[in-house]
Amino acid sequence: MQGAVRWVGSIFKVQSSMQKKLTAVFVFLIITPIIAISYISYQNYVDSINKNTSQYMNQVIANFQSKLEETIANMMVVTKIPLYSQELQQYLVTPSLDLAKQNKIDFYIGLMNNLNKDMSSTYILDHYGNLFYRIKTDAVRPDLKQRHAEWQSIAERAEGNPTILSTQEISIPNHPSYYVFSVIRDIRDVNSFASIGTIVVDTKLDAIQETVEQMDAITKGMTLIVDRDRNVIYDSRKQWIGKPLGNPAMLKGIEGSTGTVETAVDGIDYIATYNRSDVSGWNTIVYIPVDHLHHDAKITRNLTTIATVLIVIAALVVSIVLSFRLSKPLRTMTNLMIEVQQGNLDISFRVKNKDEVGVLGLHFNRMLRRIKDLIDEIYVIQNRKKEAELEALQSQINPHFIYNSLETIRMKALLNDDEEVADMTFILGKLMQYSINRGKETVSVQEELQHLDNYLNLLKYRFKNQFHWEADLPPDVLRYDVLKLTFQPIVENAILHGLEGKKVKVHIRVFAKIAGERLHIYIQDEGNGIPPAILAHLQSYIGGQTGETAMKSGIGLKNINERIKLYYGESFGVSIDSRVNEGTIVTLALPYPSPNGWNEQEGLPC
Predict the structure, then answer these.
(1) Is residue 600 pLDDT above 70, yes or no?
(2) Region of residue 58 (phi > 0: left; psi between -120 and 50: alpha; otherwise: beta)
(3) Which domain holds residue 584?
(4) Residue range 348-395, pLDDT digits in tens
(5) Is the whole model's pTM more than 0.70, yes or no?
(6) 355 and 279: one domain?
(7) If you count DSSP H runs as helices and E runs as strands, how many of each does the chain have, helices first?
(8) Rounded Cα distance, 60 and 77, in Å
(9) What is the CATH number of the domain that holds 485?
(10) Is residue 301 part of a domain?
C-alpha cells in the first residue's frame, strides 16, 4: 500500500504527462480499495478461523478431559472398596499366607477389576511383604518387586488420599510394551485408621490414545498431555511418553488453566489450544498446524489475488483509454501553444464541449485574438514613433542653424579685430553644441565640469570677474558618469542669487566624498544665503511636498532631483542647505560605483 502511494507521489512530482497522471490516479483509486478489502477480508477470515477453532478445540479438549476425569474417578472409587470391607481388612492384617486368604483377596480383586472395563490390573499389598493381583493380560509386570516399596511410600505420604501416578512404560519379555497410569491409595483400618496395606489400580493408555488419534486425524496436528511436573502422560509422536518433556519450547506461552497461543515447534507454526484438568492436574495441549488450519483461507486469498490482478489489468486498460480521451484536447492545445510560440497566430482551438477544457479553449481563442490586436496596435505605435523621431531630427535644424550663424559672427568679429566678441561667440557656440548633442544622456564628471567652465567663462563678461570657482575631485570621480547638464543650473543659481549686493568676490567650490556605496558631490558658494522661510519652501518644492513655486532656481533644482531619481532610483537625488550671509551648499547623492561603469577620460577642465 505504501509503495503504491509513493509511486503515485513520484508520478506527480516529476514532469509527467497528464495522461500518465490520470492513468496513475485511476489505477491507484481502483487498486487501493481492492487490496484493502482483500487484506481486511483475509485477516478477518483468518481471525475467524482461529477463534472458531480455538472455541471448538477447547470444547473437544474439555470433553476429552471429562472422560479422562471420569476414568480416574472410577479408579479412585475402586481404590475405596478396601476401606469399607472389614472382611478384606481382616485378611490384610493376618500375617499368615494361606489358601483362604489368597482366594478371598483374589475374589475382591476380581470384583474390582470388573467394575471398570478400562482398568488393566489391580494390586493389593499388605505390610508383610505379600502382593496380590489379577491382571487382564497374559503377562505380569516385571517391576512389581521394585515398585512394592515405592508404592507403599507414596501411599503413606498421601495419608489415605488417592495419588495419581504418571504414565509408566511396561516392558515384558516376549511381549509388546505398553503404557499405564495408576491410582494409589493407602488402605486404612476402619476402626483405628492405621495403615494396613496399599492398593494400586493400573489403566492402559488405550482409551487416551484412541481419542487422541481421532483428534489428530481431524486437526492434522499432534497432542501432548503433561502433568504438573512436566512429565509426559501421552505424546502423539511417542517420543517422551512416561518421561520428562524433552522440548520445553513446546510449552512456551502456555499459562493458566485454559487458552490458545501461537507457537513454533521444530520450525513449524502451530495454534496450540490447551486445558488443564482440575482433578488430575494434567494439561492437554492440542497443536494444530497453521498451514492446515489456514489452507482454505489461503485458497480464498489466492483466488482473490488472481481476481485482483485481472481487475487491475482491466482497470489499467480502461484508465489508459479514458486518460487518452480526457488528455487529447489538452495535447491539442499544447501543440497549438507551440505553434503560437513559433509565431503562428492564425490558428484556433476547436471547441466541442462546454466542459472545463472547452472553457479553456474559448479563453485561448480570445487570448489569440487579443494578441493579434495588440500586435497591430504596437505596429501602429512604432510607425508613429518613427514619424516623431523624424520630426525631432528636423527640429534640430534650427539649433544647428543658430550654432552656424554664431560661428559666422565670430569669424566676422575676428576679421574686425574684436577679440572679446569673438571669444564670447566661441564660448556660446560651445555651450550650444554641448546642449544640442542628443545622442548621449550621461557624460563623465570631467565633461560636465568642462561645460561648466565654458559657461562660467561666458558669465565673467557679465559679472566682471566677481566670482571664482574651483573643482577638487579625485580621478575616480572625474571618470564617474553623471547626467548631462547637472552642475550648470546649480552654479548658475549660486551666481545669480549669491552675488546680489556682494562687494567681495564670491568663491564657488565643487568637491566630493565617497561614503560606502554612495557618492556625494557638493557645490558650495559663499554668497548671500537663503532665508529660513524661503529655504523651507524651496526644500518642500524640491522634495515634491509643494506643487508650485515662484522661484526660478527651485524649478531647475527640482528638475535635476527628478531626473536623478528616475535614472538612479528613489533613494538618490538633490538636497540643499543654506545660512544667511554664509552661503549655500547643494548636495548630489549618487550611487557608487557608477551603474554605467567608468569613463576612461581623465583630467581637470581648463
Answers:
(1) no
(2) alpha
(3) 458-591
(4) 877 777 777 777 778 888 888 888 888 887 877 676 555 544 444 444
(5) no
(6) no
(7) 16, 17
(8) 26
(9) 3.30.565.10
(10) no
